[in-house]
Design goal:
The complex is a heterodimer of chains A (407) and B (261). Chain A is an all-alpha fold and 407 residues long. Chain A has a domain of 140 residues. Chain A is built from 17 helices and 3 strands. In chain A, helix 2 packs parallel to helix 4. Chain B is mainly α and 261 residues long. Chain B folds into 2 domains: 43 residues, no CATH class; 195 residues, Cytochrome Bc1 Complex, Chain C. Chain B has a two-stranded antiparallel ribbon. In chain B, helix 8 packs antiparallel against helix 9 and helix 9 packs across helix 10. The model of chain B has no long low-confidence stretch (mean pLDDT 90). The chains are: A mainly alpha (407), B mainly alpha (261). Strand 1 of chain A pairs antiparallel with strand 1 of chain B. The structure holds protoporphyrin IX containing FE (HEM) (2 copies). The site of one protoporphyrin IX containing FE (HEM) has 24 residues of chain B, from helix 6, helix 8, helix 9 and helix 12.
Amino acid sequence: MTFIKDFVNVLSAGSISFLLLTSIFALIIFFNLMNGRIRSAGGFAFIGFGLLMFLAGIFVPPLLYLGVAYFLILFVLARLGGRLWDTKIGLWLFVFGALAFGLSMLDPNFFLIAAKPDNVPIVAMIFLLGFFTWLALRKAYLNDTQLVVGGIPWEKTESDEKLFTWPDLVYTEMLCMILLTIVMIVWSVVLRAPLEEAANPTSSPNPAKAPWYFLGLQEMLVYFDPWLAGVVLPTLIIVGLMAIPYIDTNPRGNGYYSFRERKWEISVFLYGFLVLWSFLIITGTFLRGPNWNFFGPYEYWDPNKLVPLVNVDLSELMWVKVLGTSLPKLWIIREIFGLALIGAYLGLPPVMAVGPFRRFYMKMGAARYYVGAYLFLIMMSLPIKMVLRWLFNLKYILHIQEIFFNV
Amino acid sequence: MANLRGLQEGIVNSQIWKSVFRVGIPNTNRKRVLAVLGSLILHLHPVKVRRSGVRMSYTWCMGGTSFFLFLVETVTGLLLMFYYRPTIEYAFTDIMDLREQAPFGIMREMHRWGAHAMVIAVWLHMFRVFMTGSYKPPREFNWNVGVILLVLTLLLSFTGYLLPWDQLAIWAITVGSSMARASPGAGNEGPMSGLVKLGDIRLIHAGDDARFALIGGRSIGAATLLRFYVLHCVVIPLAAGFLMAIHFWRVRKDGGISGPL
Ligand code: HEM
Ligand code: HEM
């Protein structure tokens, strides 16, 4: 038991769980929707990645844990293949998840956090997200098996038939409303809304957390300054969501579940929604304790936990550690590496437009291509910054305190 | 059974019932059409719907759930307004009283859990709309209305969070609103804000920046509470209600629930 708990504690650490989730994400898509086989170029790449983790794990123990978890999941997924979307397997997954959660509740540290009244809805959200992701992908998978052999999506068999709103739709709605009313009443009777002491502006709690749905943004503060994590990125999330229908010109997959016809759109959206948004909220809620330090799910939230601050800027890394000189005075020279790096990153879209992504560029037109590409790059800057922080303890790529401009 | 049937017919054929619901029991196709067309609320729906669109496994009922939870929030919120005064002196004690004294004291619970549930339901609804590709033409605009509704839902929940005026409330809002301080060009600690100058005088400082506008002061206080109360109970619900009307209208005008062409 202790071993399993340790295992999970280590795996949950920010960057480890993030890498694991990202690779599971890629795995599921590869094996079950793109009909991946282990014996194929893609399959070997996945095995290679796992072996790399094992090798690196000799030097960095957490990676060994990652490697073990990764191979376990890889082989389970490879064995299941398309059966992952069978209702029976889905039921087992649910039972397994509920059991793991139930057993975890026996752990006092886990219980303390998971049973906090405000956290109960988030526990429910995890299960709901799991269920609906599975459901959507299952329906997509079923439709795709039809579409490959030239069939029609399941929705098509019914969409030409019209039903009377009364009674068919009205009764469904009625049922939904009655169920919801019951759920809300039971929930309200069983679980009291939290109320702490009266507001006291002079004594701040530790940790001080934003409302739960903003904890993903608060978690981003670990990697970005407030002007980015709190203002620019949230704005761009909204802009990005609004831009989706105008960037995505693929006419297929409108009005039915399908993955095959919308591989890129769905992969990017699911990655953003599940990993970058939901998972960060879950981390911020359950795994961030006093001083916003990281705590595994079975760890005690020790307010005195000391975490050494060893983060360095790219400029210091390059000038002092690599080149062995002191930092130049003038910021434009001091930050030359950061500027070059960011310049190169932002220069990718035009280069890709004439290179490998030419097809997309021609199909989408310049405006769509550039807006989409830059939104995507900005979205990916978060995982990139996370990995850089983890590998090199990198704090800022660009640190111009002269105008508060840090990236 | 026969008696029940007789009773039902007696009620449905009475003058009172008929004055409210014109058509009686909708047991013929003609009456089914009239039942929907003749009712203000039901005529949000078309008379006939795609079979695939009625399936719970297609829409997950999440749009309707979001709407229903919004109604729950409105009703429980109005009840809370009877007890609650948005001032520093009373806010917290009113909630205490509500907890200890009010009969059927689950309104606060229902309002709070309903708020959490609504945020989750709206996310799941967006997720469903994405997975069925329902944002594609002709529904691009409705997707955008939806995104604004999502933002309004989060803002409603955020402004409501402050109202109990306990430690949880003010510190959550302190953390949340301190971001505004860092707005580029408009917050006193944001990048480029130092460049907004008149001669030597900085125009953006803690007394007039974006955060000040949001919370009505240099720190969370009486002004913030009142501001958030008005936003929470009047401004945002009205805006959200208006946008929902547009949202539902557009679902109809864009050809009903999406389905394969
Ligand atoms: C989508 C709609 C709404 C959401 C998400 C929402 C959310 C919230 C939240 C999170 C609280 C704090 C609850 C607590 O700590 O107990 C709250 C409190 C409150 N809300 Fe709402 N609300 C909504 C609609 C409304 C409406 C329409 C009204 C009134 C017309 C209203 C009136 C109030 C009042 C008076 C309080 C303070 C009482 C209290 O904190 O328990 N709300 N709301
Ligand atoms: C308070 C929030 C919201 C409410 C009350 C609401 C309500 C609804 C309802 C009742 C429907 C009918 C179909 C269904 O139930 O799925 C619908 C459809 C739709 N909603 Fe929402 N919605 C909300 C937020 C959103 C958001 C956040 C988005 C997207 C970002 C969105 C985009 C759409 C689209 C595109 C449709 C048409 C779907 C189709 O035809 O299949 N809505 N909405």
